[in-house]
Every structure is written in C-alpha cells, then in structure tokens.
Design a protein that fits this description.
- This protein is an all-alpha fold.
- It has one domain: Ferritin (Up-down Bundle), CATH 1.20.1260.10.
- Helix content is about 80%, strand content about 0%.
- The protein is built from 6 helices and no strands.
- The radius of gyration is 15 Å and the shape is globular.
- Belongs to the Dps family.
- It comes from Comamonas aquatica.
- GO terms for molecular function: ferric iron binding; oxidoreductase activity, acting on metal ions.
- This is DNA starvation/stationary phase protection protein.
Length: about 140
Amino acid sequence: MAQGLSRLLADTYTLYLTTHNFHWNVTGPMFNALHNMFMDQYTELWNAVDPIAERIRSLGHPAPGSYAQFGKLTSLADVPATPPKAKEMIRILVEGNEAVARTARSLFPLADKASDEPTADLLTQRLTVHEQTAWMLRSMLEE
C-alpha cells in the first residue's frame, strides 16, 4: 500500500510542478482565465501532497520527497523545456489529471483487500478531484 501511495504522491507532486510552471508561463488570449485556474489547481495539488505523505507515514513507511525519487516513481512525463502554447498546456494537464486518477484507482483493490478504509477514503477524494479537473480542462479544448 505504501509503495502505491508513494507513486500517487510522486504523480501528484509532478502534476503540481507542471501546473505551477504553466501558471507562470501561460500566454495568449486565455491568459487571465488560465492563469487563475492554474493557480487554483496547483494550490489544490499542493494541499494534497501532505495528506498522501502522512498516510504513507501512518502505514509505517518513509515518504519519498526528492526529485530523484519522484522521477523514478511518477507516471507523468516532465514538461517541455520550452513552454507550450496555452491549448497544449491544457491538453498536458488533462493527461496528467487522468494519469493521477488512474494511479489512485489502481490502489483500490489493495486498500479493499487490507480493509484500509482511511486509504480508500483518501483515494476517493483524490479520484474525485482529478476526474473533475480533467473534465473541466477537456471542456476548454472543445471547439
């Protein structure tokens, strides 16, 4: 369970960094809307990493906390060196939120088998956020 939560932590932190990067670097006609939306999203992600790490600690394991560890554990790609255009940022964040949701969903069987309700509750909360965020971002890509 702790290993799976470590992957979720790495995915969440990586998505946090990507979203914050895009907040800083977004340009174009959607600047104000995206700048503010990305700030809301990275703030939510920042607030999510602590409960995930603390759950890992509650299970008696150390939580990963370095870029090297996160790089080995995450399922998300790093952002391009050159900031992409706004719509590409949105697409990358859709994929990132979908990936984090997949990671969270993959842990439910382990939590169920272990009768680990606190972890299942945490996973449900994260899954709700990432599925909703992906939906809202996908809606912005429709013509």
